[in-house]
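Hi V.,

You were right to ask for the full record rather than a summary. Here it is.
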Amino acid sequence: MQLLFESPRLYFRNITVADAPMFYELNADNDVIRYTGDATFENIEAAKTFILNYKDYELHGIGRWAMVLKSTHEILGWCGLKYLPELAEVDLGYRLFKKHWNQGFATEGSLACLKYGFEEKNYVEIVGRVWKINGASIRVLEKCGLIFWKDAIFDGQSGSYFKMTKDEYFKI
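Predicted structure:
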């Protein structure tokens, strides 16, 4: 296991094939994927195939990382940065098991990813995309200092873009 970076309560590492059961279980909860546009995996083997075909780490040096609680080593879900080549943007995203909601993990993980993106990867701008009906994720982005930028449509849903520039990050 390669530790990439950490925050006070969490550490982050690449998702591996061994995480397929966790990945399957996370996406099996309709409440967890309600605002994502993603479908559930048919089975653990489908989650494994997804992970095996996930090339973001190699192609872009970033991706969605396992978000792990330091005190217990339990995987809470994932959080990370994704390069969207069709938009030439770096997107911040996260997904947590429901039992870990409302404990500040999404905000803490997102702040750690922003730090990694701006301080280690030297990105100029990072965006967050969210469906307008997802008030909890809007609050997370705002708590992290991302600012509303524009409205857009994501996966056929009305959404909003939030963003933060490197200059704004270093003013916080």
